[in-house]
Design goal:
The complex is a heterodimer of chains A (about 260) and B (about 220). Chain A is an alpha/beta fold. Helices cover about 35% and strands about 25% of the residues of chain A. In chain B, about 80% of the residues lie in helices and about 0% in strands. Chain B has helices at about 10, 15-50, 50-65, 70-80, 90-115, 120-125, 130-160, 175-185, 185-215.
């Protein structure tokens, strides 16, 4: 079956919002992404998994051009993106990104972290930015932490502030780069719960994660990557029960074994 | 034979000493303020400017850090007029202090900028912020917090360096002390008083720096 299989979603999907065509990326001689073809519909939820070094983080980091690609085409909501694109900031502000290491601004409170970009990038007045930030901090279940600094929050709280910070820009797409990998086990679920709620709200999401329970629950398609290639794309049901590729089966065997051991 | 201490002549000249003290304070404070701007701008240029600008900043830093401050003053005060740039001794002193502290300040602030994790910049970029916005709102404050002790030490050195400006007859404390000394021949007494006044200036600036830190640069604690 082709790698660009149409999504089999149980909810309505819109037009294409992300299109990657024959994308290649190199770090020097190292071929990180090989001939990536991927089309994502508005409202679609995609989970990307694969062994470390398989290129999954690089793939989503190319979408907002934190990483440059060398060949092929990436089109975000109708605009072809590349690093020297004038106004790349206008594309980036429509794409929220959540990082493994949170990357909150340490000198700003949770609330200020959420207000900075809306005020400086979108020119939203302070009072309005604050009202939105408070509403969204409530949505990620930490309104009472608004005036705390990142260092005063737990990992799970920090990651939820980071999600709120992205949501305050009212993005069209959300990228998650291993959002729970740096968390203590007891904090994983509070972050995943927020992500599930976000998925249910209709947000277009691409998540690099090994949380297979999350993938089963919300993904429209699961992508398996290995050695810079998209090896398999399938709806979660088929991905987990009948993986087609030998490498997918081996990976799933390892990761599901590890997760059963852990839980 | 024994030396008889006599501070009367020195104390009689207190209006001059006070004026010298004030001039040193103003000269230092101005040089710190302008030097800070030069340092931040230079550090920005050095960390994210185009190649030619980085090379110019590097040359400037090496030139200043590897030559004596007294010579730098002489070049500005006696040398530049040959090129048509003539300054009063006070203006030349201020310029020399700024040029000097800028070279050290750029390196200090650059170290602060480089201590900021790459993820901070990526977070700013992913929110759609422009490079200058990322520098101003995300990098600058944590960078200054990280190197504030080095920066303030450098500024105290700048204040002490103002005494070298007496060599071009800038009207600061050391020059005033020299005048009083040549008039009264009370060398020990006048320089003893000057020492106390410089110590007082240091205490004043350390207090101001600590206040700035408390008001603007305090890091949150757990």
């Amino acid at each position: 079956m082709p790698a660009t299989a149409p999504p089999a979603a149980d909810h309505a999907l819109g037009d294409t919002i992300i299109e990657m065509r024959h994308v290649d990326k190199f770090y020097g001689d190292f071929h990180v992404l090989r001939d990536i073809d991927l089309s994502v519909a508005r409202g679609e939820r995609i989970v990307i998994c694969g062994p470390s070094g398989s290129g999954k983080s690089t793939l989503i980091r190319c979408l907002n051009q934190l990483e440059e690609h060398q060949k092929g085409e990436i089109v975000i909501d109708g605009t072809a993106v590349h690093a020297r694109l004038k106004g790349i900031e206008d594309i980036r502000r429509e794409i929220g990104m959540v990082f493994q290491s949170f990357n909150l601004f340490p000198h700003l409170t949770a609330l200020e972290n959420c207000m900075l970009a809306p005020m400086k990038v979108r020119g939203i007045p302070k009072a309005e930015a604050e009202a939105t930030a408070r509403k969204i901090l409530e949505r990620v279940h930490i309104p009472e932490q608004a005036h705390k600094y990142p260092i005063q929050l737990s990992g799970g709280q920090q990651q939820r502030v980071a999600i709120a910070r992205s949501l305050c820009m009212n993005p069209k797409i959300m990228l998650f780069d291993e959002p729970t990998s740096a968390l203590d086990p007891e904090m994983v679920s509070e972050v995943l719960d927020v992500m599930v709620e976000l998925a249910e709200s209709g947000m277009t999401m691409l998540c690099v994660t090994h949380e297979m329970g999350f993938a089963r629950k919300v993904a429209d398609r699961v992508i398996f990557m290995d050695a810079g290639e998209i090896v398999e794309v399938a709806p979660p049901e088929r991905f987990f029960t009948a993986p087609q590729n030998e490498r997918t089966r081996k990976f799933l065997g390892q990761i599901l074994h590890a997760q059963t051991q852990a839980h | 034979m024994s030396y008889e201490f006599d501070f009367a002549d020195v104390f009689a000249a207190w209006p001059e000493l006070l004026q010298g003290l004030l001039n040193s304070l103003v000269l230092s404070a101005l040089a710190m303020a302008i030097g800070m701007v030069v340092s931040v701008a230079g550090a920005l240029g050095k960390t994210s400017g185009p190649g030619w600008l980085r090379r110019i900043i590097d040359e400037y830093i090496e030139l200043i850090r590897n030559t004596p401050f007294l010579i730098q003053i002489f070049v500005i005060y006696f040398g530049l007029p040959a090129a048509g740039l003539k300054f009063s001794s006070n203006a030349a002193a201020l310029l020399a202090l700024v040029v000097n502290v800028g070279a050290y300040g750029i390196e200090i602030i650059r170290a602060g900028i480089e201590s900021i994790q790459k993820g901070q910049v990526e977070a700013g970029k992913s929110l759609g912020m422009r490079p200058l916005q990322i520098f101003r709102y995300i990098i600058l404050k944590p960078a200054i917090q990280a190197i504030y002790p080095s920066l303030t030490s450098q500024f105290i050195l700048l204040m002490l360096n103002t005494s070298v400006c007496s060599a071009i007859a800038a009207s600061e404390l050391t020059a005033v002390a020299g005048d009083i000394q040549s008039r009264t021949f009370r060398s020990f007494e006048v320089y003893f008083v000057a020492t106390c006044l410089y110590l007082g200036l240091s205490v004043f600036f350390w207090t101001v720096f600590a206040g700035i830190e408390r008001a603007f640069l305090r890091k949150p604690t757990r």
